[in-house]
Amino acid sequence: MKPENSRAQQVLFVAICTIGICAACGPSEQASPAGPPFRPVGSVEDVMHDVVYPHAEVVWDSVGTIITIEGTNEIRPSNEDEWLRVMQSALTLAEAGNLLMMEGRARDTEDWMIYANGLIDAATQVMEAADNRDDQGVFDTGGELYVACTACHEQYWEKPPSAMRP
User: Fold this and answer.
1) Which of its termini does the chain have fewer beta carbons within 10 Å around, N or C?
2) Between these two residues, 40 and 15, which has the higher pLDDT value?
3) Taking the model in full, what pTM does it have?
4) How many CA atoms lie within 13 A of 33 on its CB side?
């Protein structure tokens, strides 16, 4: 065999292998799944009652002013653990927005998604404010969180709070 033919055979072999590999990696005729096979465990009410509500309360209770006859009480996170708790609750709320968009929980693909994304956005802002140890920022973005929650509840809430699980 001549050296030129050997070289040509090598190039041809590499080309065939490359085409084969590319074909194997390319799109297939079979439909690929839309995404991971998520398995919702709790209902929307469970997510709201056991995830969203307690963590929203952490945010809302973390900063404020209480004025009584005895005087004024300023509430602020006073140490790293308290700031961390606010940040963790805000992160949990942001991820809860994703939980609410999962198939099986989402009420529709329009307004519901807008409200769930609003929860994510507001909670992310709270998290950033807490990370910056900005108590006024937590207060203000906590207000945005309240607005996001209230807007969704006005459209989708089917039961009064007393009718939810204890």
Assistant:
1) C
2) 40
3) 0.73
4) 4
